[in-house]
Each structure stands twice: as structure tokens, then as C-alpha cells.
Automatic annotation (TrEMBL):
Residues with 4-aspartylphosphate modification: 52
Gene3D superfamilies (UniProt xref): 3.40.50.2300
Keywords: DNA-binding, Phosphoprotein, Transcription, Transcription regulation
Xref: PANTHER family: TRANSCRIPTIONAL REGULATORY PROTEIN NARL-RELATED (PTHR43214:SF24), TWO-COMPONENT RESPONSE REGULATOR (PTHR43214)
Matching PROSITE patterns: HTH_LUXR_2, RESPONSE_REGULATORY
Signal sequence segment: none
Domain HTH luxR-type: 144-211
Pfam families per record: GerE (PF00196), Response_reg (PF00072)
GO molecular function terms noted in the UniProt entry: DNA binding
The Response regulatory domain, residue ranges: 2-122
Protein's name in the database: Two component transcriptional regulator, LuxR family
Organism of origin: Microbispora rosea
């Protein structure tokens, strides 16, 4: 796995690079600005880019913009975005163009090495990894959304784990229920959120994007 890291904090940038190299992963370049990051993507054609949300010069949206541009230049590039705290508008902007090979984690998750590496490998394999704290805050803030009020407490639990990118087997293990029960809950969630079986979009992520979009509208 070839990785480029874009992070303007030198301690975090080098710390993540050392961590990944200790796991025998190939960090081909590190960057401290959007321009050097995009140049590294062009030069090295990595499998995964780890990108800070806020980067120079204004420390506002540069990281997200660079991540979107990197995926435009290299379709199929996996991107794992790191953020100091939950920023729903940025998450929505990143995920709006598609959810394959995308992750959004809080920086504190890097210190939980197992969880961080699991998210990295999941995104590299084509999946989605959304920080559970992001999911929890968004679900809490949007409880009056159409369809959400119809979900049971257990269905909310399943939806939150779906949003993290977990598959049915992992969800069943986390909740200590059978895979058949998980499958039943997911069918019920889709029905209550009016996500038709014929919809070709990724319904697992579409459910979470609905919360993201509604939260952004409410500001």
C-alpha cells in the first residue's frame, strides 16, 4: 500500500508516517501544504492519501479542496481525511461526489492505533470509514429528520455502525446478535427511510448522507 500524507503539523505528520512505516506500509511522500500534496499525488500515484481538513494558507477548506482535486486527478484514489473535531459541512462536501474509498476520522483516533489502521485498510480496500463520534453527533442532532423518528433504538445502533463502514458480520459481533438479525434490522432501516431496493446507490451510506445534509441545512 503506497501512502501520501498531507498534514501541516510536523509532529503529527512525522508521527503518522513513523506509525505506518512500523506497520510495513509504504509512505512514499509527506506534504505540508495543498500544493506539495497534489504534486506528490501526481508524482507517486499512491493508493491512499491521508489528508488534514485544515491546511495553509487560511486553514479553512484547503485540505478538503485538495482531497477532492486529488480524486479528480487520480480516480479511484482512496482518501482518509483527518479532522480535529466534527465538521459536518466538510464531511458532506467530501462525500457528496461518492463514498467509495473514503474515510473521515477525528485526529484523536490516530492514537488508537488498531482503530486507525482498521479504517485505513477499509478505505484502501474500497470501503467507507466514518468516525463513530461523527456519526453519533450527527444522529443526535438530526433526530427529527423524516424517517429517523421511526427507527428503533437497535436500528439506530445498527445504522451508526453501518455509517462507520462495518459489514454485517462486524456489526453482529459488535452488538452480540446474529447476522440474520442484523440483516433484518438493515432491511427495516431501508424501508423506514424510504430507500427502495431498486436504488442502485449505496443505501448504507445514503442513509448517513441524509443526516449530514440535513445537519448542514440547519446550520
Amino acid at each position: 500500500m503506497r501512502i501520501v500524507i498531507a498534514e501541516d503539523d510536523p509532529l503529527l505528520r512525522e508521527g503518522v508516517a513513523l506509525l505506518l512505516r512500523a506497520e510495513s506500509l509504504d509512505v512514499v511522500a509527506t506534504a505540508d501544504s495543498p500544493d506539495t500534496f497534489l504534486a506528490a499525488v501526481d508524482a507517486h500515484r499512491p493508493d491512499v492519501a491521508i489528508v488534514d481538513v485544515r491546511m495553509p494558507p487560511t486553514h479553512t477548506t484547503e485540505g478538503i479542496a485538495a482531497a477532492v482535486e486529488a480524486r479528480r486527478r487520480q480516480p479511484g484514489l482512496a482518501v482518509l481525511v483527518l479532522s480535529a473535531y466534527v465538521e459536518q459541512a466538510f464531511a458532506t462536501e467530501l462525500l457528496a461526489a461518492g463514498t467509495d474509498r473514503l474515510g473521515y476520522l477525528l485526529k484523536e483516533r490516530v492514537g488508537r492505533v488498531g482503530e486507525f489502521l482498521d479504517a485505513l485498510h477499509r478505505v484502501a480496500a474500497g470501503g467507507t470509514a466514518i468516525d463513530p463520534e461523527v456519526v453519533a453527533q450527527l444522529l443526535t442532532r438530526t433526530r427529527s429528520d423524516s424517517g429517523l423518528e421511526r427507527l428503533t433504538a437497535r436500528e439506530r445502533d445498527v445504522l451508526a455502525l453501518m455509517a462507520e463502514g462495518l459489514g454485517n458480520t462486524a456489526i453482529s459481533e459488535r452488538l452480540f446478535v446474529s447476522e440474520g438479525a442484523v440483516h433484518k434490522h438493515i432491511r427495516s432501516i431501508f424501508a423506514k427511510l424510504d430507500l427502495a431496493p431498486t436504488d442502485r446507490a449505496d443505501r448504507r451510506v445514503t442513509a448517513v448522507l441524509r443526516y449530514l445534509e440535513e445537519t448542514q441545512r440547519r446550520g
